[in-house]
Amino acid sequence: MRSLSCTIAILCLVLGGTGTTMCAQSISEVDSKYLEDQFYIGLGFNFLLDRPSDVVQRNLSYNLQMGFIKDIPLNSDRDFGLGLGLGYSVNSYYTNLVASNETNTITYEVRSTEDFTRSKLETHAIEFPLEVRWRTSTPADYKFWRIYAGGKIGYVFSGRSRLVTDENGAQGFSNNDIQKLQYGLTLSFGYNTWNINAYYALNPLLEDSTSLNGTEPIDTRVLRIGVIFYIL
Question: Which parts of the sequence belong to the Outer membrane protein beta-barrel domain (predicted)?
């Protein structure tokens, strides 16, 4: 919408006179209904909380997310409202926790990092974010502060365990122990382009029945911290 306003402004300079007045009215009309921050892309680091004893993170456990959030202003200034969206995310979790799938039974054990090159869980999910949005934006201000708080639900449509060793190379399998439905709290805040984004999972990464060596429950949850960029 703002790019349209800029185009109209240029036409105003060309037309002059009465045309300028008409253009000013049009710009005011367009800007009074402006929307913000409807497309997003983010990068983050996944911290695993409540890990079983001796489980350590290694390599870069990353997150990539992107999507669309419908901006729904709730006041005339359009600086307070809701956001409801649809997105996609991919997450990798690198640890020394090794998953094995033998005779259709998935087991977990902690191994020395000298025994393998990489061990990870990877998930691909469709996400549904919901935000309460506050910002200092105006129709003419392109740089502003924002605080967006809320939550999101994710549906994991693909989850895999993968192990890379010098002896056997890369091996992987679809891991049904990964929770299909994942949900948590979100917070984004920042100024202009740079914004901090955080996510705290309210349910474990793996199913409740999952255990280490058949004894110790694996109730690991995710804390994700990164940056997020909003467009249009």
Answer: 24-206
Alpha carbon of 145 to those of 33, 75, 148, 210: distances in Å? 19, 17, 10, 43
Confidence at residue 8, expressed as pLDDT on a 0 to 100 scale: 44
Say yes or no to pLDDT of 221 above 60: yes
Q: 36-231 in CATH: which number?
A: 2.40.160
Local structure of 113: helix, strand or coil: helix
Residue 76 has pLDDT above 80, yes or no: yes
Q: What is the pLDDT of residues 43-57, one digit of tens each?
A: 999 999 999 989 999
Question: Strands 211-212, 194-201: parallel, antiparallel or unpaired by DSSP?
Answer: unpaired
Report yes or no: 140 and 126 within 8 Å, Cβ to Cβ: no
Per-position b or e across 133-165, b if 16+ CB within 10 A of its CB: bebebebeeeeeebebebbbebebeebebbbee
CB 148 within 8 A of CB 188: yes
Longest dimension (CA), the chain: 82
Is 223 within 8 Å of 36 (Cβ atoms)?
no
Task: Calculate the dihedral angle through the C-alpha atoms of 147, 150, 154, 159, rounding to the nearest 10 degrees.
Answer: 60
pTM of the entire predicted model: 0.84
pLDDT at 213: 80
pLDDT value of residue 4: 42
Query: What are the strands, taking DSSP E only, across the chain?
Result: 39-49, 62-73, 80-94, 97-102, 105-110, 118-135, 145-165, 169-174, 181-191, 194-201, 211-212, 216-217, 221-231
